Amino acid sequence: MRYVKIQAASTQIPTNFCRFAALNQRMSRTLKITVMNMSEFEIKTLTPEDWEIYKSARLKSLRDSPDSFGSTYDQESALSDAEWQTRLNLKLRALDALPLVAKMDGQPVGLAWGVIHEPDLGVAHIYQMWVSPALRGKGIATSLLREIKAWAAGRGCEFVALAVTNSNQAAVSLYMSSGFIATGQLEELRSGSAIMVQPMVMKLSS
C-alpha cells in the first residue's frame, strides 16, 4: 500500500508539503490527502471484498448524476450482491482495470475506473468518474485522474480516453485543465438519449 499525505493551509495544495512512503499491504494502493478543514480523504484500489463500498458509491453516483453515465440507477440497483462482487473480480473477468474509490470518514465520496480493453492496449479508458457534490473542487477528481494516468503509463499506454456530457462545463473544464482535448463527434449518452457526450483524449508523456 502506498500513501501520499498532503497538508494544506489553503484551498491550493502546495507540493512542498508532499511526503512519500512506500508500503505493501494486500496488493493495493492508497492515496491519503489532508484538505483545508483537516479532514482526510483516502483513495483506495477496490477489491472483491470491497463490493459493498463500491455498490454504495456507484448507486450514489447514479442517483446524483443520472445525465453523466450510460447506465441508470434503476438498472444497477437491481443487481444482486453476487453481481457487484463479480464486477470487482478482475481476474475472473480477465479484465485489466484499476477500480478506485475515494473515502472520507469511512464513507465513499468519489469513484473512478481505469480500463484497458483488448486488443487496443495502448489506450486506457476512464469510466464511472464521480465525486460527491459537496466535495467537488477539493482535489478528489484530480487525484483520481492522477492515479489512473500513472497506472496507465505503467501499463505502457500512450493515451487516456474518456467521454463527458458536453453540457457539464465543470467536468469539461476539469478534463481540459488535466490535459485532455476533445476528439471526434458528439455521441449519444445512451441509445435514444437527447443528452450528448464529447469524447476526449490525452497523450501520456513518453
Explain what the structure shows:
The protein has helices at 51-64, 73-77, 81-87, 90-93, 140-154, 169-177; strands spanning 2-5, 19-22, 30-34, 40-45, 96-104, 107-116, 123-131, 159-165, 181-182, 187-188, 196-203. The chain contains six helices and eleven strands. With 206 residues, the chain is α+β, with helices and mostly antiparallel strands. Strands 3, 4, 5, 6, 7, 8, 9, 10 and 11 form a nine-stranded mixed sheet that branches. Strands 1-2 form a two-stranded antiparallel ribbon. The radius of gyration is 17 Å and the shape is globular. Residues 1-28 and 34-38 have low confidence and may be disordered. The longest helix has 15 residues, at 140-154. Helix 1 packs across helix 3. It is 26% helix and 32% strand.
How would you summarize what this structure contains?
The protein is α+β, with helices and mostly antiparallel strands and 206 residues long.
